[in-house]
Fold:
Amino acid sequence: MQLQAFNQKKRIALLWLLASVFLASALCVRPYWSEGGLHEVLETTGLMLVFFAILGRLWSILYIGTRKNRELVVVGPYSMTRNPLYMSSLVGVLGIGLLVGSLILALSATAAFYVVFRYTARREAAYLSDRFGPAYDDYARQTPLFLPNPLLHKGVAGATFSQPALTATFRDSLFLLALFPLIEGLEYFRANGQIPVLVTLF
Structure:
């Protein structure tokens, strides 16, 4: 009996729940480094990570498109890691956390999202192994689950992509960018005493 593909609706619902908890925490937390040079470093680093996350997701979707669970894609970003979309999303979560200015909040959020992504990735790996057999097992033995290994990169000539999938991924990525002015607004209102601060975190 063939395994069923993992229900992505459950993953998405859990990720939205985690995102809501993260935003609620950001609303009530004042970062220890709320101003000065280190705060600016954290913000700049966070913004760079968000851009890298968006580029990583777009690069990944160019290769996987509508092929997910239909074909075994082992080139491009998928030659370096089996889950470049999840890895890029983790980079984005870390970046958003750094934009808030709290290392504790950034690392906690990234760890929570990692747990969800790791569980999902393992369920998907079991499904792909069942579906593609030895071809996937060989690929899995050579390719990390998450952390990319650039030395494994393999390109392909004449790759095609799904425009709807690319458009949808780009639209979703705009959500990450939209959080930047939102976080800046929170900082402004907090500095003016219009948002109560419940805790200060490093």
Q: What stands out?
A: The longest helix spans residues 103-132. The first strand starts at residue 29 and ends at 31.
